[in-house]
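Batch manifest, entry 17 of 40.
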Amino acid sequence: MINLNEVLFLTPKNDVVIGRPFFGNGFRIESIYKNDHYSERKFKILKLFNKENRLFAFDKSLIKQYNKIVVSECAQISSVVRYIYIYNRQSDIKAYFWNTLRGEYIEEVKKLQKMGIETYTFDQGDCQRYNMKYNAQPYPYLENIYFDSSEIKYDCYFCAADKDRLLTLIKLKNALKDQNISFNFKVLKEKHKNYSKESSDIEGIKLIDKFVDYTTVLKESSHANCIVELLMKGQSGYTLRTMESLFLNKKLITNNKNVVNESFYNPNNIFILDNNYDKIKKFLEIPYETVPKYEKEKYSCNSWMNRFFEVEK
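Output type: C-alpha cells
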C-alpha cells in the first residue's frame, strides 16, 4: 500500500462521477482545466505562443510537490503531461482513460506512450488494441450507497443514451412483454436521428431529450429487480450498470460476454444475452446471491489508486 498523501489526482474535480466523489480519500485532487472547462479555440491560439498552460488549473509549484501523479482522460492530455514533465522529471505519471478510445484520443494515447507514460483503461479490448494497462474503474459514489425505499416497482431498468443500442433494446423489450416481465426503459435521443420510422417498435420505451441526473438513475435502479446493460459497438469493458448492480444488490442483464472473467461473476445474478431471451423469466425467478464485501472493496477509489503504483511481482 502506498501513502496516498503523496499522490496528486488531476481530474475535473467538480464532475459528479470522476471528481467530487473522490474527495476525502487521502490523496490531493485538483482540476486539469480552469473551471473544468476546455476551450479548443483558446488552446490552439495559446499553443502558437507555447502558452497553453494558462488554461490549466494547476501550476508548476503544485507539480513540484508530487512525484506520483494520476491524470484523468481529457482533451490534449499529452500537452498536459508534457507540461508536468517540464517542471518535475522525477514524477511517476499515470494516464487513465474512462471511455473506450475513439478519434483523437487514440493519437493522444500514442503520444503519451512515446513519452514513456503508462496509459491505463477499464476496457480490456483497448488494452489489447493499444497496448494499454488494465485498471478496473473505481466507484466511490457507490461504496456507501443507501436508499430509504427498497420498494420494487418494475423488474428491469435501463436508462442510457441511444448510441445505436435502440434496436437491441427493442428486441429485449418485446421479449420481456412476451414473458409478462415489467420494465422501465429510457433512451436519450440522438440529436439528428429520426425516430418516427420506429415509433411502433419503440412503444413502451420512453424517449428523452436530456440526460437524467445520476442520483435519479440510482434511485430508479433501486426500484428494479434487475438492471440492464447494453454495450456500445466495439466496447468490451463493463459500464456503470455492472457496478450499480453489484453495489445495489441487483441482478444484471448484459450483452457483455467478458463479465464471466470477473471475480464477482455469478450466473444466478448475471444473465448474458446471447439469443436466449426466452430464458430471462427463469433467471429472474432465481434468488439473488449476495456478493462478499471484499469483492466490492476492489472497486473503491483507494484500491484503484493503489493499483497504479503497486510493485509488479
